Amino acid sequence: MTGEGIPEAPTPEYLQRKLYFLLEHLKSFHAELPETYQMRIPYELLTGLANSLLNDTIFEIVKGLMEIQHVTEKHLEQLRQQVETEHNIEVQEWMSKIHDEEELAHILSLMKIKHNQKMNETDIKLVLHLDQKVKDQQSTLERAGVPGFYVTDNPKDIKIQMHLLDFILRLSNMNGKSRGKMSKYKDLVNLTTPYARRMQYLSNRIFGEVARPTNSKSMKVVKMFSAKPVEKNDYYVNYYPRHVEVGWLMRHLRSYGLFRDEHEDFKEEMKRLRALRGKAPPPRGESKRSKK
After folding, report:
1. This model's pTM is above 0.70
2. Which of 54, 12, 23, 6 is nearest to 209 (CA)?
3. How many angstroms separate the most distant Cα atoms in the chain?
4. What is the dihedral of CA 163, 169, 170, 173, to 10 degrees?
5. Of the candidates 188, 228, 189, 178, which has an alpha carbon nearest to the alpha carbon of residue 12?
6. For the segment 207-226, what is each residue's pLDDT rounded down to a tens digit?
7. What CA–CA distance (Å, rounded) separates 179 from 171?
């Protein structure tokens, strides 16, 4: 996905245009799918996938997984072919030893049954091995932070993941024309012509960036006001334990006998002893003041 002219440390403007580029092609790939799969791949998933593909390491991971899969499939195919070859060799040996046609036909029928059973067992082992490889790929991509990938046996979810892998491979194998578009975006950012400056100004306005040249002191203010509000930050909002909710929950659990509060038990015991000594407050409506 990257050309020779891409800077080692991409600027925010370049990353924004790359994201736009990836999302545009992902949407075109998405439109080519049948409607049943389009409904299962929402726009939010495409956006998250485009964001993850900003890191070119994802393309290398997917290519590595595909190479491992091709090598594995070739090896498993050779194992299956080896079982076929062994069966054919054994058949030839029996045909050279036995000349009675009836006896030979009986032996070959038994060998065919045995061979079919062995082939079924081999196929089951190969399928289980491939299933494990699929789970390994799902786990690897999930740890790499690629949206839509998680360990699952659901055939529909696996089909969706196959389409997402196809999207990634198609993006990684795009021709020079598409890579030329990315280099044009980069060149446009670096140009100093009036047209380029104007387009850069409009781009910054669209994507919420600072439109005009600003010094570092003012950029601190920009970063402060563009940061996530403190009241919406979980780190600050949930910094202290939720004492009120926990206390309310414990009171209800105590009423069901699932939690023992020694302090409440002590207060109830003191009230009971006061009542035995006649020191308990009178019931409502029976006090001396109410009788006057």
Report:
1. no
2. 12
3. 127
4. -170
5. 189
6. 677 777 788 888 888 888 87
7. 10
